[in-house]
């Protein structure tokens, strides 16, 4: 498991702990807890950037008092799949449950296996 979401600010690789959203109709910038999913019109911020952000002139900034808490790490299905296929699978001789994939035309040997449905 790993923290997949990082701060949206250029050059910052800190873990995201807050989400910034602009409400243009009300001229308001809202910084709140990290959203459960990344949204295209919001920005994930690390603790330092969430605390130091200022609103544009004439805008209101809404930010909760206290500390932002990092969300607990959650299993990421795609990351888990990538980790699983990184390690070659050792198959005992005579294992008829799995079938080796043919080598890639570039000559690179793959290490993925196909397991037929029973």
- How is the largest sheet built, in terms of strand order? 3-1-2-4
Low-confidence stretches: none
Quantity of strands, as a count: 6
Helix content: 10-25%
Overall geometric form: elongated
Radius of gyration: 23 Å
Order of helices and strands: EEEHEHEE
Number of helices: 2
Distance between the termini: 31 Å
Strand content: 15-25%
Q: Summarize model confidence as the mean pLDDT.
A: 75
So what's the oligomer here? single chain
Structural class by SSE content = alpha+beta
Count of discrete domains: 1
Largest sheet, in brief, is: 4 strands, mixed
3D structure, described in words:
With 118 residues, this protein is of the alpha+beta class. The chain has one domain (1-86). The protein is built from two helices and six strands; from the N terminus they run βββαβαββ. The strands form two sheets. A four-stranded mixed beta sheet has the order 3-1-2-4. It is elongated and about 65 Å long. The protein starts with 17 loop residues before the first strand and ends with a strand.
In short:
The chain has helices at residues 47-52, 77-86; strands at 18-23, 28-33, 42-45, 60-62, 99-100, 113-114.
Distinctive features:
alpha+beta; 118 residues; two-stranded antiparallel ribbon; 19% strand; single chain; 4-stranded mixed beta sheet; 2 helices
